[in-house]
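Side project, low priority. Logging it here so it doesn't get lost.
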Amino acid sequence: MVMKRRNLLKFLGVSTGTALLCQGTKGLSSPFRVAGQGNDTVTNIIKASHFLKFTPVKLPIPLTIENLNDEEQTSAYKSYEVVDDVVLPEGFTYDVIAQWGDKVGDSRFGYNNDYLSFIETKENEGFLTINFEYISGKTWKETYEKVIGKSLPFEDVKAIADQNGGTINGFELPQDDPLKAKIEAIAKEALIDQGIGVISLRKNEQGQWQRTYSEADRRITGLSGLEEGPYLKATGPGVKIFEKEKKLGYEDGLGSNIIGTFQNCAGGTTPWGTVLSAEENIQDQVPEPVMADGSSLDPSVTPFVFNEQYIDGRGNVFGLAGNKYGWMVEIDPTDKNDYGTKHTWLGRYRHEAVAFRAETGRKLAVYSGCDRRGGHLYKFVSDNNVTDPKDRKNSRLMESGMLYGAVFNSDGTGKWVALTSETPIDPVLPSTVQGGMVMLPNSDRQVGGMIKVTEDQNIITFKDKFKTLGDLYIGTPEEKQGAILIDAHFAGNAAGITCTARPEDTEIGEDGTLYVTFTSGTPGGDGGPDKGVFRGPDGEMNYEYGWVMKITEDKNDPAAMGFRWDILATGGEPAKGGMGFSNPDNLMFDNQGDLWMVTDMSTSGHNNEITDRVKDGEPVSTKSLVGIFGNNTLWYLPLHGDNKGMAFPFAIGPMEVEMTGPWLTEDQQTLFLAVQHPGEANGTRQNMTSEKREFSILTTSGNEFIQTRTVPLGSNWPGKQVNDPPRPAVIAIRPVKE
């Protein structure tokens, strides 16, 4: 049920004529309070009652909000210069709050900061929780010594890895082998740079946020519990698997104790003041598939990887059990002794984001997505009701309930299917997904792991062998439930849960509506999205640019088993039915109930030159065209007022970055933003080098012209001085004080 822009306007209650009129005569509402200036036009900032306005930043492609004709667009966009900085509207500035390598407690600020949550403990003061997702191997290695101030045996280890195809099984090396010690040294430092951080902040009289270095400042790293700091804890049926004595697979000897957390991407903040952190691409560090009893595969399955681009498989040398990663981790940022609890009822998969619907007298609903090509949307529903949404005891509600996966129908309806032993086997058919491949639990249950299925006939054979999810897993009823939760993605495919287009964020609106970003409709090695649901504005398959979806539960009940869905916004070029952005990611609501959104175009596609839109007589793929959009961006999508149904760019990121985790303070005066992996592709920008590239650009009416674009090679952000090493950092965006 794809909705074009004109249908979106109707859906939001705006006529197309009204929207076009607004484009030429209105600025846009903003929660920031900035000084008014100029006239009431889209190119000036104005102040209107308690709403305040900003001027959209200029992107590399024309947008309909500019209200320019084709000739004006061609003239204005025939050249464009990309800037290695955070580009903001006039009247706004930003401060760097913390960056990779800064001191945090007894450790340091990690790499590739992602989700942010600011819990205010008093006016203009509180705790900022930060996720540290992964390291960009090439750039991390290149800049490590300059930033951290010590060296690591990179060359020695790489020389050995090169002789073995880029991998080393450090787990099997003898403990006294010098090579094992060198691998441990590198892997340890990289895992320190992942996990979660908590820092305390206070705003000064000038409106700047400064660190206060409280005793609650701390790091929960990828190795917390191994040498220092407490272990992480777990709740729910997965604990039965961790504590099981005779496992089919690997035994780490720790019972339910867990060493660290890593690949921490998006997250969510509960109404009662705790923060949940999403462990996403754990398959880069430990084995993801498991045995039939839910136990981990041997660490040797995921060896240590060291090549020009990546330093991964870092759990291998430490013997980490893969089934203990891929969860949602809850912490209380105000409690200095809290190092995290993994709630296994929420399922184990490549978590991206989490949203809470906590209403008095109703079940708690927790929504999350699996960010992989062909990943699922999930909902946990508690057994017990919420009595007070602000009560810290609500965390206990995540210890008992049921996990469901979403099944989307092409007519805009859907249902939730429980992931439990009694659920019938009804696998997703390869013919129904883009890319034609589905992953299922290995039909040889003694071997465990997963298999890739490309023929529908093989699904019939699978159904003949297994009747319910309980047939796929072994153990007591509770142990089977734990194994299903541990193997949630593959179990979900076996149960017929809809394969989607990389669900990267879930947010709950004031009325209980769920908003979900689906970042990319292109299939890949993990699978692909459902053919009947995830299509472009003209029914295109393999639609890279993504969507924002709106989901309404039946009777607006968080525990409902049915729902309706609509596409709220579609990425892509305005001339082709898109709204001007590509690959939507994290969402955020401001206090007016309007949406803010960042984009997640893959680094490999940023500013890739494209001069010909036709190859061998066929239009090139949308994925090949992503480079026209330039760098990743931050957008404002008003759901109310004169400009609802439109999209306005507020910020552009530096070179090769993803901007993540937007968070507005309660007074709406500061926007915290995480800027991750600057210089990820080209490393440190040397001597301010740039190059010219050419792009085939479309006007908003579809006329094609060539743009010459100046593109910096690598990054020096945030230092911005010649040859400064690029460093991930968290910034605070604020209006300039008069």
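Brief comment: Residues 178-192 form the longest helix (15 residues).
Revisit when time allows.
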